[in-house]
Amino acid sequence: MTQHSETPHRDAAAAVVVGADGSPGSIAAVRWAARTAADRGRTLHIVHCTGPIAQGTPRSAYDAFIFATMQDLQHAAEKVIATADCDAREAAPEVTVTTELTHANPARALIAASAQANLVVLGAEAWAGSLAHLGSTLLAVASHAHGAVVVVRGPDPNRLTGPVVVGVDGSSVGEPAIGAAFAEASLRGAELVAVHAWSDLSRGEFGGSSYLSLPLADFETAEAALLAERLAGWSEQFPDVTVRREVEVFGARERLAEWSKTAQLVVVGSRGRGGFRGLLLGSTSNWLVQHAECPVMVVHHD
Fold first, then answer.
1. 135, 190, 280, 298: which one has the fewest Cβ atoms less than 10 Å from its Cβ?
2. What is the reported pTM?
């Protein structure tokens, strides 16, 4: 019987989609995605994109050279997808795997696939600490995909202990991230830690004055109430999930990064307070996909 839901990402046919390029980060992502798909009874769909490759019969010596080069690229791409298939089956022998080798732009192909995917998974190199290192494809997909994107990173991405941690900014655009975090914690049988920082500042200024001189207890009481309100409905929907609440004055990304040292997963929204769809990741999400020490799930407000 076909399962219907209010979002295609939860449909029974929605696959876990992973981008593969043969790099060490990609191999870790394929293995993580395979285990995740197997645990959830979903198909794993591996996508490798080469970009445009010239086709057709060569008509000159130059054409022959280009054709041979393109054929080498095609064979290399076929090897990448075959190796990724083997890696996935080794990591999760019970998983059903499909593969796709396309000449489309990698970011566009993965963003298109995300519309119907349960998750889109990408790998990041352990040394990635700047936008240049992360690569344009990862940033484009994490910024503009539909549903949830997981960036697999950290020294132990398959950690099975520790909590699921979610950043809560208090805005409506962050609601899907809270829901995804509760669902992940429930699936994993893990505690959920909800971290809320009422200021995005990391320095001692607020509205042109030192926020250290403001009555912080009043702010903390109000922000704790806001956090409780944001979590209440989800706690009713997931009564099996134990929730720990943390209210911070500032430094959300630093606190979430600290939690990533022991967490199974960190979950964040794709934009911060009042973010715009056309922009790249919010500052917290952007920073975490570069620096977290566990997989990071970026959830979009479709």
1. 280
2. 0.82
Q: Which residues contact 210 (CB under 8 A, 6 or more apart)?
A: 204
pLDDT tens digits for range 121-164: 999 865 444 333 346 788 889 889 999 999 999 999 999 999 99
> Would you state the structure tokens that stand for residue 96, as one six-digit string?
């059903």
Ranges of residues in the chain whose predicted pLDDT is under 50: 1-5, 127-134, 200-211, 272-280
**Residue-level length of the chain:** 302
Quote the longest CA-to-CA distance of the chain: 78
Of residues 25, 68, 59, 29, the one with CA closest to residue 45: 29
> Residue 48: exposed, middle, or buried by beta-carbon count in 10 A (0-12, 13-18, 19+)?
buried
Instruction: Name the residue with tokens 């699921």.
Output: 164
Question: Following CA atoms 17, 22, 24, 27 in sequence, which dihedral angle do they give, to the nearest 10 degrees?
Answer: 40
User: Any bridge partners for residue 244, and if so which?
Assistant: 193
Q: Up-side HSE of residue 20: CA atoms within 13 Å toward CB?
A: 34
* φ, ψ dihedrals at 27, nearest 5°: -60, -45
Give the β-pairing of 44-49 and 16-19: parallel
